[in-house]
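Re-run with default settings, no changes from the original entry. Doing this only to confirm the output is reproducible before filing.
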Amino acid sequence: MTRGIVPPYLLARIADADAERFPTASAAARRTLRMDAPRKSARLTLSVDGDTLVAELTDAPDREISDAGGREVLPGRVVRREGDRPTGDAAADEAYDGLGATFDLFSEVYGRDSIDGAGLPLRASVHYGKLYDNAFWDGERMVFGDGDGEVFQRFTRSLSVIGHELTHGVTQFASGLVYHGQSGALNESVSDVFGALVEQYARRQTTAEASWLIGAELFTAEVQGDALRSMRHPGTAYDDDVLGRDPQPAHLDDYVETDEDDGGVHLNSGIPNRAFVLTADALSGNAWERAGLIWYDTLTGALPPDVDFARFAAATARAAVARYGGTSAEADAVRAGWEGVGVTIDGGRA
């Protein structure tokens, strides 16, 4: 099953938009919905030890970028492999760099060799379909559309989107969270968390400096909005006469019960997203370090595939205690982060 970055409810709003004002975008959204419907190595590093030059092999990405050429057939023609010079095609080169930045976070910070932990080659296809308003992980590769030029720009522009989608691969191999209801919202939230951390690590931004926006580079100037989602302030990412107002809840009191969007996975992910930001803010500094390590330990631990918010919160608390101790600032920050969105560790409501 694919995991698209643009939720279906947003595409539906664009599809219903004024065709005279946004002729290309409304047609592209309808086309994207139809296209999506059926899918429901090593590198040498050098260091100096005294007077001795030390060489060692470390994990390195194995990337391959293909050009689908506007067709809906994958993978397309290979245009860049690991170590090749830039192609001059912005989408191909952005995809190549984004795959590398995602690999670097998981390898250098969490000691994970590619998304499966065993050196899986990173594959991507760009220029997928015509007027395709999405990007997704299909279980084997990243796939990027070019957008419609009226609402969405090309999807390779956003590093947080690339990190988000590749993290669906990490989740696939690490815990296999069921993509429905609260476990599905957690699946989406984990991808937002590490998508944001990929961007922050690449830019060396502290939690205070970071935007905590997912897909900030995607909207055109025609859209009244900052991004697809805001992790710090869910429900505030956009407020547009075509897209409507960002419907994400930020607290368990506002949890959305729905049969659409696989039980609201893109909506209710705002709740655990904010819990992570509150945790990171309380710890300050670099979010990929303490807060990120706790969430990574949780994701790669013994999570049941159908885990709900309360059990996931409890798992993050256990991970904090295991790594930092029961009376640590880290353990306190995790508990407070979840209580800030209405989830307490024992499964009750704050």
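The CA atoms of residues 275 and 340 lie 7 Å apart. The chain is about 40% helix and 15% strand.
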